[in-house]
Amino acid sequence: xxxxxxxxxxxxxxxxxxxxxxxxxxxxxxxxxxxxxxxxxxxxxxxxxxxxxxxxxxxxxxxxxxxxxxxxxxxxxxxxxxxxxxxxxxxxxxxxxxxxxxxxxxxxxxxxxxxxxxxxxxxxxxxxxxxxxxxxxxxxxxxxxxxxxxxxxxxxxxxxxxxxxxxxxxxxxxxxxxxxxxxxxxxxxxxxxxxxxxxxxxxxxxxxxxxxxxxxxxxxxxxxxxxxxxxxxxxxxxxxxxxxxxxxxxxxxxxxxxxxxxxxxxxxxxxxxxxxxxxxxxxxxxxxxxxxxxxxxxxxxxxxxxxxxxxxxxxxxxxxxxxxxxxxxxxxxxxxxxxxxxxxxxxxxxxxxxxxxxxxxxxxxxxxxxxxxxxxxxxxxx
Length: 382
Ligand SMILES: [Zn+2]
Prior knowledge:
Helices cover 32% and strands 27% of the residues. By secondary structure, it is of the alpha+beta class.
């Protein structure tokens, strides 16, 4: 593809307003692009209007998976340009998703098309997995993993925006909601009711006290984090509240993982429920993404650094991420040393107004991905 076509493909993707859903339009568009170049695709519907997409070139083993999500966050904020019209200024391409992560999707797709068109022999299969719902729970990656699309994979590259750095590990994320159930009564006769707010506060005090004693740090991804994030209860100042709800988020690490958080919550619930029957709590896990504990020294990361440095002229450092990605779902059934990295065009403008991607970086990643498709550095001896 020539530079104009490369920019046009990204502009077409940015124009699709796949804000937290409507990913099927992205899947449809990319299906057409692949079809034009004789690459077969397969859509896997998640829900009406929401579809994952699979495309492959080459054949047999090894299977290198390249993946990215189709959804973007809401435009929000104060933009200088139309967020859904890709706009070039001073070597930068502005638009919602330009950074997170439609430039990466475009770079993967173009690299595959270039290899197909030039009939370059591949060492195995390159599989492209487009996912839905990454920004809100990684449903697409979970669905694709459950349907077996990672079973024969030998390496995974996720194109989230790292820029000229490679992320080899990241934290997990756990969202939990706890509802206290009580009984409404007039506040002048509290003995007829059961104060859900009061009961919940007692529970939160115990959980808070236990969590504050957790001092766990992962060498790659940093400290375990725990926060109560939403609190509500009661509806009238002179009524004993019948319900109260809290939501919390934990950023987990292997040293204090999702199960450890859930155990802590459950044991606090049990402690109160053994004390008195008035304590009634309903604990619901809203999102449960485990930490991804990769290794900076894996062959894929080394090859990524080598190719990245050669193409961009920049040194490529490695880091452990504090966020979560689709890798949390893709890698659930894989061995701890599975070759994995997050490496994609990007910068700090993701999720903000005036999101952009440096044009040269976008072009460089097409080349980087093409070279990784030809040789990902992983020697498969198992
Ligand atoms: Zn992203």
